[in-house]
Each structure stands twice: as C-alpha cells, then as structure tokens.
Fold this protein.
Amino acid sequence: MAVDNDTVRRIAFLSRLRVEPDKLEDTKQEFNKILAWVEELGEVNTDNVEPLVSVNNESLLLREDNVTAGHISQEVLANAPAKEYGYFVVPKVVE
Amino acid sequence: MSEYIITTEKGKWEVICGLEIHCQIISRSKIFSGASTEFGDDTNENVSFVDAGMPGMLPTLNKECVHQAVKTGLGLNAVINKYSEFSRKNYFYADLPQGYQITQFQYPIVGEGTIDIDLPDGSTKTIRIERMHIEQDAAKSIHDMSPTKSFIDLNRAGVGLMEIVTKPDFRSPEEAGAFLRKLRSILRYLGTCDGNMDEGSMRCDINVSVRPLGSDELRTRCEMKNVNSVKFVMQAIESEAKRHVETYESGGTIAQETRQFDPSTQTTKAMRKKEFAHDYRYFPEPDLPPLVLSDEFINKIKSELVELPDAKKSRFIREMGLTPYDASVICENKETAEFFEKAAKGHDAKKVANWLMGDFFAMLNEKKLELKDSPVSAENLGALVELITSNVINGKTAKDVFAIMAETGDNPNKIVEEKGLKQVTDTGAIEKMIDDLLASATDNVTAYRSGKVGLFGWFVGQIMKQSQGKANPVVVNELLKKKLG
Amino acid sequence: MTDLTDLTIKDSLTKLKAKEISPVDLTNAYIKKMQDNDKYNAYVTTTTEQALAQAKVAEQHYMNGTNRPLEGIALGIKDLFCTKNIRTTACSHIIDNFIPQYESTVTQNLLNDGALFLGKLNLDEFAMGGSNETSCFGPVVNPWSKETKLVAGGSSGGSAAAVAAKMCAAATGTDTGGSIREPAAFCGVTGIKPTYGRCSRYGIVAFASSLDQAGPICKDVTDCALLLNSMAGYDAKDSTSSQVTVPDFSSFIGQDIKGLKIGIPVEYRVDGMNKEVAAYWDKAAEMLKENGAEIVSVNLPHTKYALPTYYVIAPAEASSNLARYDGVRYGNRVDGNGLDELYINTRTSGFGKEVKRRILIGTYVLSAGYYDAYYLKAQKVRRLIKNDFDEAFKKCDIILTPTSPIEPFAIGDKKMLENPINMYLNDVFTVSVNLAGLPAMSLPIGLSSNGLPLGMQLIGKPFDEGTVFKAGYQLERSANFVRM
C-alpha cells in the first residue's frame, strides 16, 4: 500500500516532525520501500491467532496505595529548558 | 415519563444525548505512580519522575484504584471484566508529559451497567451505562498568567480517573441533571469519588443531537467538553439542541465538531479547527501486562459494599413508612441517611424525617454548619421526637426545647426536666383551668355560644398561656369543646 | 608487568581478594587504555575521577573483608542507562545535555555490588541501528579495524568496542533486535541478552518496550554470568519485570553438556549465505557434538517474517516512547511560534535521520485505518514466531545459529547507506529472539579470512540462561578464540 505526499505530511505532523518540501519525495520513496517490504506479513495466515500482547505470562502485579514519591520539585525541574515560578513554560496555548 | 419536545412553527423535535463523565478516583497516590493525589499543594510538589515523563520511567498500577473501580462498577450494577488491558492514547499537548495517556481502549475494566434516575414527576427511568474504564488525568495548564506564555503544573498529571460512558439514553436536560446527581450520590456513598464538579474532580462531556419527533434516525452529534456543573450541563444541552433545531429548520446542516459552552451567553461555539484531525493511534500499553482479577478479589469487594442510595431508599419506604419523596431527599447523601437512621431507631420514623428535613436542616443552615458538626446529635433528635410521641411535651414546647438543644447540645430529657417543661396532661388540672376561664370570661362564652365560633382559638390560647404552654393541646381542645358546647 | 586489563573479572576478583592487585591499580590500567584508545570513539562521557575515588573505597572494603561481589570492577555503561548526576544522552542531540536525577535499577544493582563506572559508552541514537553510525557523537570504530575503519556493530557498539580494546573490564548493553549480540560478534567479545523480564527496564531510555532488555558484554562467558548475576532481578518499579527466581548463573559454568540437544533451525540457512559464516556454523555444531551434545534439526517456519514483524512493532512502540522528547521538561529546546512549532522545531533538529525515519514508520503503522493491517497483523505473526520456538524446544534444549550473516563492514558502506532495508537485513538471525522474549548469547567462534571476528549465537528456553551459559562455556573452550 503506497503512500502519497499528503499522507507523508499528515504522518509527519502527527509525529511533530517537519519534512522539508524538497525532501518530501525522497521521504515518501523511502517510506514506500519499507512498507512494501513489511507488506510480506500479509502472506501469513493469521486466522484465529491471538495477538501477542505480553511475552511473559505473568499477570500485572498491583502496588500498595502509599505515597512513596514526589516532593522533589527541584529535581523534576532540574533539566527544564524553560521554567518560571516553579512551572514549566511553553508558548501560550490558545484554545 | 418526562417529555422534552422542542416545538417550533415548523415541527417537533426530540433531543438525543449521551454523557461521558470523568471522575477522579479517591486514593492516596496516583494511578501509575507513588506521588500524592493531594489537591492544592505547591506547584509541581506532588510529581514523581514517572509523572514527569522522564526518560526510562515506567508505570506501576495502584491496587486501590483498581479496588475503587470495581466498587464503582458494582454500584452501577455493571459487569466487572476480569480481564482488561491498558492502552496508549497518543497525542501531543502541553498537559501530557509522556505524549500519550495511559487509558483502556478495547478491554475496559467495567462493562455494561445501569443507573435509575428519579424524575421530578415522580417517575423513574433507567439509564444504561455503556462501559467504564480507568486512566490517567492530565496536568494543569495556566493560560492567563502571561500574554505570551502558558505555565504547566504536573501535580494533577497521573491522578486516577474513572471514565463512565452512558448510552445515548437521555431525552431531556432534566434527565441528564437527575443522572449526574444520582451518579454523584452513588460515588459519594461508595467513597470512590467526591463528585465535586466545582473542584474539577467530576467533569462531564456531553454529546447532543436532535431528530424529528417520531423518527428513529440518528443525526450528527456535537460534543461539548469539560462542563463542570449540573446546571451548566442542563443549560448546555438545551442551548445546543436549540441550535441544531434552528440550523436544520433553516435548511442548514450540522457539522460534527467539538464545541465550547459559554455559561455567560448560554451558547456554544465551535472550537478552533485544527489542520489535521486527531488520530490517537491506540495500541496496547507494552509497559503494563493485562490486568486479571480473581473472583475472590471481586467477591470480597462485593461483600463489603455499602447499601446504596436506591436500596436504602426502598428500605426506608418499606420498613419505616417514609414517602418516596422524603426517602429520596434523605438518601441522596449517605451521611444524612445514616444520621436519620440512627435518630429514627426505636422512634416514629416519619416524625423524625419531618423534624430532620424541617427544623434540623434549617438550624444547620442558619448556623452554617455541616452535618458532621451538628450540635444536635442523632440520638438526641430521636429522643426529642420520642418526647412528643409519648405526649410528654407538645409540639410548641418541642420547638423551644430544640432551640435549646441547638445551643447547648444537651439531651432533651435533661432540658425538659431542668426547665419543668413537661406537658400538662392531667385532665383534672386542665378541666379546672377551663372552668376558671369560662367562669371569668362570660362575655366571650356568650359570644361563642351565640355563633362567634372564631373565638374558640382565643379560649385555647388562654389555656395555653395559663399553663405556660404545657397543656396538652389535644386535651384542651376536647374539653373546651365539651364545655363550651 | 602483565597488562592488568587482560584479566577477566573472575581472575581480577581472585587477585583482588588475595590482595595481589589493588583496585586503584586495576582502575588506572583501564583509564590508561581509555586515553590511548580515544580513536575508537567508544566513550562519550568519562567519569574517571569518580571511578578512582570509588576504587579507593573498594580498596578499603578489601582491607576490611567487606568486599561485595563486584568490588572494584571497572565497567563502562551504555549511554542509554540513566546514571544519577552523570550526563545521559542516548547519543541523541535532543537530550545531549540531560543530567538524570535518578539511577536505573540495573546500574544501581551494579553499584550496590561494588562495581565502579569509568564512563558512558557510545551507541546508535536511541538504540536504533546495527552499526553505531547513527550516534550524534559520531561512529564507533571497531578495534579490529585494519586499514579501513570498520563498524563495531550496534546499537551497543561503544560497549563492545570498549570491552574488545580493554577500556573497561566489561560493559552493560541493551538488546532490542540484536543490539548486544551483533556488536559482541563484530568485536570478538561475548554478550548475552537475557529472557525478557530478567533485568529491570526502569531507568533505561525506552526504545521498544516489549523488546528491550539489558545485558552484559564481557571478555568471556564466565564474566557474563558474573555480571548478569548482579544486573538481573525482580524490580517492582518495572511492571514487566519477572518474579522468576534468579539462579547463580556462574554455577552453570563448567557443567557438562552430555546429551544436551542442540537444535539447528533449517530456515536460518538462507540463500547466498556468507560461506565462511556457514562453515563456522557447522564447525560450532561439531565442537558441541565433541563435547557430548546431540545435534538435531528443528524448524522455525516463520523465520522469514521475523524481520518485517520486528520492523513494524519496534518503530510503532518507539514512535510512542519518543513522544516525550518535546523540549518542555528536559533536553535541547528549539523555540517556535506556538506549542506545535516548539515541538516540531525541537524534534526535527534534535532527532537524527534514522530515528525520524522509524518514528514516521511507527506513527504510520499505528494510524487509523492501518492498525489492523500492520500492527495487529505483526502482533499475530509474533505469536506464531513464539509458537515456532515453543515447538522447536520440544525437540531440543538450545538452538545454535550464527549471530550475523556478515562480517564487520566499513563505516559509511555504500550498500548499507543506499537503502535502509539493507541494514535491517543484518538483524535476520537476532530479531526473532526478541520477538519471542528468549535468552540468547553471542560468543566469538573464529576469524574470517579477512581476519575479522565472527560470532555464534546460542538461544535458550525462557528463563533457561543456565543452559545457555553451560553450552556457551563449552563452545568457548573448544573454539579457543584469542581476544585482541
């Protein structure tokens, strides 16, 4: 299933990545090469096969409801490129 | 059955509405991290590295959140799914540190259920629940602190949420309102969510469409997100339904979109359209194996389940003879119902109900007190009613006694003793008082006997005054009638 | 004076306990090797001062008799493990300034056992690659390179090269589709990816959550057992961590393999296979047979679908795991007009080509309308691949295959660059192991006619690293490969 330029642009936006207009064609070709290759999966009969969601059969263990983390605002903010008054800062979001 | 029909010159329309309610789970720590869920602490104080989406961080599921979800599911008469999976909902936004939300997509923990709602006309309607799942809440962004910047506080990021999705069973704003009140009541009874819409711990998304009355088509619906009061939910449904009708009747079409309800103008407006639609790319969360619940786990919760509002209400009607309306009011709040039951134990339940809903709540209101801080205890309220029922005091005296109880917190028996307020029931004594009165008020006696029946009240009043209000009014009435003729 | 860096961890510990050598001297020897071998570009961050300070502490422990299992052993740490207060970059420009305020569980385990860290090792950016050429710090040069600079393999190229050139006693690596085994094979050293869930993933920068596993890269099989003992173990902070008891892996070293059934998968003998690789494969089987093992033919019918399955699932999970790199809470931020522009600018300039490629593929295969055809399909084929192994393991105890279909190639090799798929094809022998969650080891079997190392892979049953160590040790003895 080959993709077109619009799809590449849409996927790029969903990934928050920019594909320069002059690189769009190359990106699309590469994309299509890889997709053609993985398309082989279509050959496999997977009727009545359950998807493998978890490779080990151990089920999810639950954590006791205690406050064991937090109160580390300095460490949480330590690597922030932009912070003010203890908040993370981003460009103004307009709804 | 309430009928909400929008009637215009051109025709009649009916409203179809469904709700999605996000309820913050009551737990000490967050659903996938050990940070506190405490509200109102310093910025970014209750944030773990997991909540901040730091590299290499992984989620761990809080047992209490699972517990609360199962409890809630049982309270919704719903199927508990022993097998459920977590999924990632992928999108980019300032309040989403990981770039995805951990939720449940294909396999939620709770399946179909029902809630019965009580409508103003006394009828009940069953609203069907489609499903309920658990997920993470997002962080808080503040947009109005600066003209060029938005500020992010991650304290709320990762707090557990239960998302309840109803089927599109609502046909009027009132039904939606009744549902939200009932849901809130159930959640508070169970202790799984505090239901405080004004604090944001319960938020409602609304889906609205309309159709010509009598048809069974389903037309395009619009969504309104994060409405945070029952009143606004009802207003939003009304205004949005009206907009749909107006649009259709003027030949237009309704576009499927998300709209924002503005309470100040009572209208909805379309939110800014994005260039590319959201594509959440749900897939099973690889950091969390499937959740498998044992029968034992579920049955234990079932056995510990508190009596829910509907069951309690039925029992109050059946065993204590309350009217459906009174039972409804009393049972809306678990603490009130428990207070009432304690007060009514061994006493006249209907009288206790009247006192509770009347003088008692009026007193709390006036003193601006919560039930838990009431100066009048349940036992004492019950004792007061007992004094009336056994004719120790009359109704008027009781009000005086109650006023004193509210100030002192004392037991009514003690107050009556100390102030000598016991009702005078001794017919002999009353008879004597009446005889004395009739002997002295001869003009009024004559006037009464010659037709001025209105004067009867005056005679009663005099005897009451004479007895300092303690005479048993029933006896006074009987004897006066006999003697006056 | 013998070169202290030649000593295995096992021998180092013996000598340290006997106080024949000191941890400080040992550490200094490795530090000198680091300085002399800068040209391999194995280290991206060095912490030699701290290492020496820790070595002095180790010395005290030996004096007091309070020495721990890895006391004074100098390790290199793949720069994918978050190390507290030590820069951790995943070799990506997007977080090349990140200082973790927390330690990964695996590195904490190593510290708790007395190991010391010499620095952080180079890798393919975000562990995506098979040649360590996608690192923002430049490629790692294989110490076996002669005139032409060769790749060290990937993604744990820095780890394998550092061990091969004796710039550390051993290193940690991670393996998602072969990233421990392939570089180990290319650099003539030994590495093991344990069963999925053996080692905690807490604090390891995530690439593909259902496939990633940490493991040791060492001079030999015995050292791998010692290091894995320390690294492995249940961690409540990782919900995919296994509660299966961790045995003493070193107890399997030297156990005989009489009657052990070695499975040779028919489908791995691909058309046009490198003749030398095929020959060594046969030779390895012979060696095991000479040690008393039995060779049986097994089938893994879905082998040819393992690569496309992997290249759907891994990018899909990666596209989601890498969404958190947005310049808001950490990393290199490139501002923009509005939130989306901030994200786009930061991510476009911060991520390298291969990472961006995989994110796009991953986003696509999960997107509306394509989920069923790609991701869901791949998860189903994954189950079939796992079933294949379950069936095969009814007939044998362990499976023997080559690690890589080719020998180490040149950095900047044109064929690899012209089509990304050519690089992906190198993973043909290794990816199905990650898809099935099995333990697998690569150890050097011999040199190619170009004098370059080739490795053999031993794949075990779930949680049966024991048999892998057992067979691996015997094969190592028979192969008698001479390290650099």
Q: What stands out?
A: The radius of gyration of chain C is 21 Å. Residues 372-395 of chain C form the longest helix (24 residues). Chain C touches chain A through 72 residues (CB under 8 Å). The longest strand of chain C covers residues 440-447.
